[in-house]
Amino acid sequence: VTLKFGDIDNLKGLVIRFLLTTSYYQLSVQNWFSLHRLQLLYNHSVQATFNATRIYAPSSYSYHCDRVSSLQRYDALLIPSSANDVSKLWEVTFIDFQIQGFNIQEGHFAYAKDCASFFSPAILMGLVMSLILLLVLAYALHMLIHLKSLDRHYECKASPAYFVQMKDNDMGDEKEPLRSSGNESYELRNQQFCKIYI
Fold this sequence. Notes:
Layout: E1 2-4, E2 14-25, E3 30-42, E4 45-52, E5 56-58, E6 62-69, E7 78-80, E8 93-99, E9 112-114, H1 121-145, E10 154-158, E11 162-165, E12 186-189, E13 192-196
């Protein structure tokens, strides 16, 4: 794949060449393409060559990444082909990079395989927070299961029943003619006392 800049004044002679390869993987039962090498040419002369790493996708998909760069701060997916090469003097960065080498239909990109790692910082933070919440929940359930009930340590005992003689003022009005002052009345009372063990 070759990218040319057309009639732009300063970039007329600049060409970016993408060398793509395709391979069949039995595990996924499909062909995958990968960006093998990137070359910068100026006036038909190769100026810099970079080996590409981790830029691959199924042949029926496209590959997309927010940044593909030779700079370390952008995770350096483009590496100079040789330690003594002049490629080290070049800094290449593509913003919102998307490429598809095969099975292009109607000039549109297919569904994109994104370069975002499965364990991105946001996903890792979410996993850590979920783990902390699970630990708190497990501790709370453990405390609830081992919570001691007061019913086991609450004991009520009743004392034996006894009779208490009622006083005269509990008997009602003494002026009633039908009541005799010689009778004795008793009330059945039951005392309870409770003990709580903690």
